[in-house]
Amino acid sequence: MPILAALLFLTTARACPAGPLDRVRQAFVDVSVMSYAPDGEATERFVRYSDYGRANDVLLLQLYTSVHLPDGEVRRLLGLFDAGGFWSDIDYDDRTRGRWQPSLHLTRMYALAKLYADPASAWHGDGRIGGLLHKGLAYWYAKKPSSLNWWHGEIGVPKKLAAILLMIRGELSGPELEQGLRIIERSRFGRTGQNKVWLAGNNLMRGLLTDDEALVAEARDQIAEEIVVTDGEGIQDDWSFHQHGPQIQFGNYGLAYAEGLSFWLRVLDGTPYMFSDAQCAVIEKLMREGICRSIWRGVMDPSFCGRQVFIDSGPGKASSAAVAAENIAALKRPGYRVFRRFAKRILEPENRSDGLRGPRYYDRSDCGIYRTATWYASIRMHSDRTIGFEFTNRENTLANFSADGALLFMQHGREYDNIFAHWDWRMVPGTTAYDDGAPLKCDNSVEARKNRSGHVGGLASGDVLCTTMEIERDGLHALKSAFFFGDLVVALGADIRSSDARIFRITTALDQTHLAGPVTRGGATETSGSLPWVHHDGRGYVSLDGAPIAVSTEIQEGKWDLIDPFYRDRTQRGPVFKCWFGHDPARTGGYAYAFLPCRDAKRTERFARNPSVRILRNDAGCQAVEYGKICCAVVHRAGEYRLGGRTITAPEPAIYLLRGGRTEVRSLPPLNGAAD
Q: Where in the chain is the domain with CATH 2.70.98.10?
């Protein structure tokens, strides 16, 4: 509907009985103005995680607008606001691609509009806030801030502005609405995945502002088109989520998709525009089988935050997932209590158990998650079918090795809390990486980031997860397999070699976390009677082939602007626990180690003296372990393999799980350069 016609229609409609969209508009406002924080402490966390509305990450930023701001924060905003309609601490001429400063203007207006429009708020109808909102609109319309990033102009600005206008719709003048609609109209239908959902949502809000039923229906249908399982961008059939190509995006686009969809499911519920049961079930399953599993004790796994390992990204993204879970729970569909319990465990820190257990392997995304009642682990890999990482907007330019078999462990959830500025990114836990004397590569081309092997896969069954990866990147080759059991993880490496003469150092990192208490070591001498072992922070590491484990507890220093460009020259330093194996670049090498969660030093030493796991093979043909009555084998090359008292005849590369007379097999693509 043209803008002038829409305005004439609205002038008449305000004197007429309620129209068919009034219920949707009211639901939109009701959901928009509510607070998702159960108490003042949670509110303060939401505001802090959002960096007081300045966060680069849209999910963290939205936490600022997901609560009722504390009175002190409201008074701070009122004090900073100039009579000319702007905030004195915002650079309105900034054009940055990522953390674009002018967007804070609309973020603050949105947060204040919530309070102004909510009858339950002490600030409801407050004259100071009302005046601020109208002056703020006038300044924005006159200033016309712009960013070099298309996303802000087509999605971010229209999204916030449309919500603000809907919350104060009854007070808008004709010119205020007309100018706002011209900006919102920049959101044209199109694009893919979460970007398509954002654009459609903006058009749905435009339809609500103009009473355009046809536009609301079209926008709703555009959103529904993305509530599908696909082999393109969006929800995959293993319940992972892709955006920017075949790249796992649980913690950014996937979570933004779930949070945005859950909002629209809640707003449209009970109206003619509500989504079907089948569509609701898709969103629920993405959350339950995918996103929620990547969150442990109120923290999102850094491996699934992608390039956005910003300050407070772990707990902030988990809080955003809690918002999505609350919206889904509000529908009260069968099983809704699962989502209410999940949200409660994040928002109320004293009880973090969420009931999610067992292994998951996401074949479409080359990664796996293992959960027990007391510890969590994940493995992040990539193949020639997937994308392991990205440097979009120059965010986390240190991530070159972050998907080369990253094996992260969490017990209390604080292991990696805001460590990433001073992390050694050549020693991402679990990865085998090289040093050639040059700075970490940050070429964002697909070819530069690609692992040139399809020999990557996994098998999850019962309480066992087996994964494997062939690395073929930048002159470095390695075969890496990991075996997850209920109380330990075994990691094997073989055929580690270099074809690049510039590579002078190759390492495999066992772990790298904040230093948290004493580090105990043993088994370093032949007379010790045990394998080399290390203990730190309630977990143990044992070298199963006798190779020495190198350990560092030094102060490390780094800069946040390599992770988030907004933090120019902001350095950070702190003591870091780091342990690793060194490999000779001139020789073919390997490794074998066990990770022992929830152990003290005595139990770690006891295991090192008498390991309960047996390495059956660890070479270029096969990597296999035996633990109790379970045998797990990764066959890299077809052939016959004697594994303890068993013989496997493998016609092709595959993962084998043998247990209780039962054999499970998962085929693998051939090694790079190998004949089929």
A: 363-611
Specify the fold of 1-32+68-218.
Glycosyltransferase (1.50.10)
Work out the average pLDDT over 446-463.
95
> What superfamily would CATH give domain 34-56+227-356?
Chondroitin AC/alginate lyase (1.50.10.100)
The count of other CB atoms within 10 Å of the CB of residue 93 is: 10
pLDDT for residue 141: 98
Q: Say how far apart CA 353 and CA 525 lie, in whole Å.
A: 41
Q: What is the mean predicted confidence (pLDDT) over 587-603? A: 98
DSSP state of 470: E
- Residues of the chain within CATH 1.50.10.100 domain(s) are 1-32+68-218, 34-56+227-356
Nearest C-alpha neighbor of 582 from the set 522, 504, 524, 520:
504
Check: CB of residue 572 under 8 Å from CB of residue 505: no
Coil/strand/helix, residue 93: coil
Options 3.40.50.2000, 1.10.3720.10, 2.70.98.10, 3.40.605.10; CATH for 363-611 is 2.70.98.10
Structure confidence at residue 673 (pLDDT): 76
pLDDT given at position 153: 95
Q: Is the dihedral of CA 45, 48, 54, 60 positive or negative?
A: negative
Residue 347: the pLDDT is: 85
DSSP string, 585-641: TTS-EEEEEEEEET--HHHHHHHHHS-SEEEEEESSSEEEEEETTEEEEEESSSEEE
Q: pTM (2 decimals)?
A: 0.93
Q: What is the 3-class SS of 487-509, one letter each residue?
A: CCEEEEEEEEEECCCCCCEEEEE
Does the pLDDT at position 566 exceed 90?
Answer: no
pLDDT tens by residue, 96-131 = 877 889 999 999 999 999 999 999 999 999 999 999
List, in order, residues 6 or more apart from 368 with CB less than 8 Å away: 359, 360, 361, 362, 378, 379, 458, 460, 465, 467, 484
User: How much of the chain exceeds pLDDT 70, in percent?
Assistant: 96
Residue 439: strand, helix, or coil: coil
Give 12-79 as a DSSP string. HHTTS---TTHHHHHHHHHHHH----SSHHHHHHHHHHTTTTT-SSHHHHHHHTSSPPPHHHHHHHHH
The model's pLDDT over 221-234, given as tens digits with 9 standing for 90+, comes to: 999 999 999 999 99
Coil vs helix vs strand at 550: strand
pLDDT, the chain, mean: 94
